[in-house]
Amino acid sequence: MRGLLALSRVIDRINALIGQNVSWLILVAVLVSAGNAIVRKAFDMSSNAWLELQWYLFGTVFMLAAAYALQRNDHVRIDILAGRFTKRTRDWIDLFGHVVFLVPFASLIVWLCVPWFLRSFTSGEHSSNVGGLIIWPAKLMALLGFSLLLLQAISEIVKRIAVIRGLIDDPLLEAHDPAELAAGGESMPHD
């Protein structure tokens, strides 16, 4: 188990580094959007390439930060139900969900994305919009995003098993505000 926990820490560090740094692309997307809007209003000109670049940037942030959101427990969940269960029951539900749903789904998407990306890359596929961008970078981000999500799911499975066995303290609790924990809000993410 020690080796798996070491692997989990490496995966966590990689996804934290990517997740924390990719957020800067939101600023770039906003600047591109603002610049495109100013040019469109001031000069009555627009560019499909600039619009597509905005989509690519936002999609990149969404795809590459998904694994980090899972790691920090900032993903969407149904707290109305989960809040009623004990911590141990929630750990078992998370473990079950990761093993039965997340790993198979992310694995399938990665498997399907590889040929999808390779066909686009080798053919030099371009957008069908006039002046549009090449498409393979967006498809690469989908492949990378789901690959990182799959790795993070494996890391979360290892950590949930270790927490359930009592081998480690719950790393999710470390990311939360102690005041929330004292008030019984242990499932609430820290801002």
TrEMBL record:
Instruction: Give the chief site where it resides.
Output: membrane
Q: Which residue range or ranges hold the Tripartite ATP-independent periplasmic transporters DctQ component domain?
A: 30-161
Q: Which UniProt keywords apply?
A: Cell inner membrane, Cell membrane, Membrane, Transmembrane, Transmembrane helix, Transport
- Name the membrane topology term: Multi-pass membrane protein
Signal sequence bounds: none
Q: Name one GO cellular component term.
A: plasma membrane
Taxonomy, superkingdom: Bacteria
Which GO molecular function terms does the record list?
transmembrane transporter activity
Q: Which residues cross the membrane?
A: 21-43, 55-71, 92-118, 130-151
Q: Where in the cell is it found?
A: Cell inner membrane
> By its UniProt entry, which InterPro entries does this protein fall under?
DctQ, TRAP_DctQ
State one Pfam family annotation.
Answer: DctQ
Question: Member of which family?
Answer: Belongs to the TRAP transporter small permease family.
This protein's assembly is summarised as:
The complex comprises the extracytoplasmic solute receptor protein and the two transmembrane proteins.
What is the annotated role of this protein in its UniProt record?
A: Part of the tripartite ATP-independent periplasmic (TRAP) transport system.
Q: How is this protein named in the record? A: TRAP transporter small permease protein
Q: Which species does the entry assign this protein to? A: Acuticoccus sediminis
Lineage per the UniProt record:
Bacteria, Pseudomonadati, Pseudomonadota, Alphaproteobacteria, Hyphomicrobiales
